[in-house]
TrEMBL record:
It catalyses: 4-ethylphenol + 3'-phosphoadenylyl sulfate = 4-ethylphenyl sulfate + adenosine 3',5'-bisphosphate + H(+). The lineage of its organism: Eukaryota, Metazoa, Chordata, Craniata, Vertebrata. It comes from the Eukaryota. InterPro entries: P-loop_NTPase, Sulfotransferase_dom. This is Sulfotransferase. It comes from Felis catus (Cat).
Length: 420
């Protein structure tokens, strides 16, 4: 266990004197991703993953099926109307279709052929494993960002796999064996054996949970949340390396035992699907901020991440990676189901559903939403100051332009006539 975490909660600055929103308070419904037709759809079948047979069934929703079989039209149509309509159609297949058109990934894909080895090297450097924001700033200072406890399970912080495995480039077949399957969902190996403990993890009313599918802008969100709750200066965040302050529930470090002991209020991150999160969260016992990102950009980011992460050393093509993504064969399972589950809970009083793209489109509104959700009272001038600080964070890091891309656009366009 990492001593850095022992007995520590969030920095004192985190103890904002907030008044939590009243249960059931009406929040403006976020707009769903704009999707206008339902085609495509993937299969989660197959793959040489191992299975965590000993584990207990997950929380309330049970084995994945409840989600996929549920009506899914909440995503359709876009706009607030679509958001309010509620479930009623095939969301996950619609989401799968939503890849076509727009998005940075697709735009890049239109310009680029598949990646070359030289591009690969450049991309690994550019992308890093979540090397943006606080982590990158900490690294630039020679700090512990990359190897810190929260720096990622495969990083220098003592990941979940043997070093020999880490050094071996993964062929597609080897890559398969790196996951294990839990109730039909592919999870990274470091989740093995702890899913039951996670389901029973004691949640506190003062907790704030940040939940995302990987590469959805989690680090940026945590920084923005920090600024909103603290009114902190972005440079302060860089200096303290905020990543180290936020444990990830399922990572080997700092581990569940230490997270349980952290002082309140805790801020905890997780990439797990809704149904695998602690069951207390399903009961509305603490606040959950969920952020979704355009999958066309996310898949590019996740691809680069897999190639740069030592424990994955992914060597397949981008096209092949996209197929895995579309067929739910990546770590943390189906992006489509991940987003859908949270979308269905977006009106829960303890859930705030955000979109990464809105940070760029309308940061002021997002800051306002966060402030209200976290119970931070601020006047107009304070809100503007907070937004300005958050703008700095958003502008500080985006390595998108440096990333090479394969034929994402073609692949996704085959699936649908939709435009993002
Ligand atoms: N200020 C910031 N700090 C960290 N990540 C940021 C960021 N601004 C944008 N991002 C993007 O968030 C993505 C990483 O998400 P996560 O934090 O969930 O791992 C990266 O996407 P790209 O790889 O497309 O650039 C990264 O560039
Ligand atoms: C490849 C599975 C995996 C492992 C670790 C992740 O964490 S993070 O995005 O760097 O925080 C994500 C996915």
């Amino acid at each position: 266990m990492n001593a850095r975490w022992r007995g520590r909660g969030l920095p004192a600055a985190w103890r904002w004197a907030g008044v939590w929103p009243v249960r059931g308070e009406r929040r403006p419904a976020p707009r769903p991703y704009d999707v206008t037709s339902a085609e495509g759809g993937g299969s989660a079948a197959g793959g040489a993953v191992t299975s965590d047979r000993g584990a207990q069934p997950p929380g309330r929703l049970g084995r994945g099926g409840a989600v996929t079989s549920r009506p899914r039209s909440a995503f359709a149509g876009g706009g607030r109307g679509g958001a309010r309509r509620g479930p009623g159609g095939a969301v996950t297949s619609r989401l799968r279709s939503a890849f076509a058109g727009g998005g940075r990934g697709a735009a890049r894909a239109g310009r680029r052929r598949d990646v070359t080895p030289a591009e690969r090297g450049a991309a690994a450097g550019a992308a890093g494993a979540g090397a943006c924001g606080a982590r990158a700033r900490a690294r630039a200072r020679g700090g512990p960002g990359a190897g810190g406890a929260a720096a990622g399970p495969g990083g220098g912080g003592g990941g979940g796999m043997a070093e020999s495995e880490a050094e071996t480039p993964s062929t597609p077949g080897e890559f398969e064996s790196k996951y294990f399957e839990f109730h039909g969902v592919r999870l990274p190996p470091f989740c093995r054996g702890k899913m039951e403990e996670i389901a029973n993890f004691p949640v506190r009313p003062s907790d704030v949970w940040i939940v995302t599918y990987p590469k959805s802008g989690t680090s940026l969100l945590q920084e923005v949340v920090y600024v909103v709750s603290q009114g902190a200066d972005p440079d302060e965040i860089g200096l303290m390396n905020i990543d180290e302050q936020l444990p990830v529930l399922e990572y080997p470090q700092p581990g569940l035992d230490i997270i349980k002991e952290l002082t309140s209020p805790r801020l905890i991150k997780s990439h797990l699907p809704y149904r695998f999160l602690p069951s207390d969260l399903h009961n509305g016992d603490s606040k959950v901020i969920y952020m979704a990102r355009n999958p066309k950009d996310l898949v590019v980011s996740y691809y680069q991440f897999h190639r740069s992460l030592r424990t994955m050393s992914y060597r397949g093509t981008f096209q092949e990676f996209c197929r895995r993504f579309m067929n739910d064969k990546l770590g943390y399972g189906s992006w489509f189901e991940h987003v859908q589950e949270f979308w269905e809970h977006r009106m829960d009083s303890n859930v705030l559903f955000l979109k990464y793209e809105d940070m760029h489109r309308d940061l002021v509104t997002m800051v306002e939403q966060l402030a209200r959700f976290l119970g931070v009272s601020c006047d107009k001038a304070q809100l503007e100051a907070l937004s300005e600080h958050c703008h700095q964070l958003v502008d500080q890091c985006c390595n998108a332009e440096a990333l090479p891309v394969g034929r994402a656009h073609c692949l996704f366009a085959q699936k649908t006539s939709l435009r993002w």
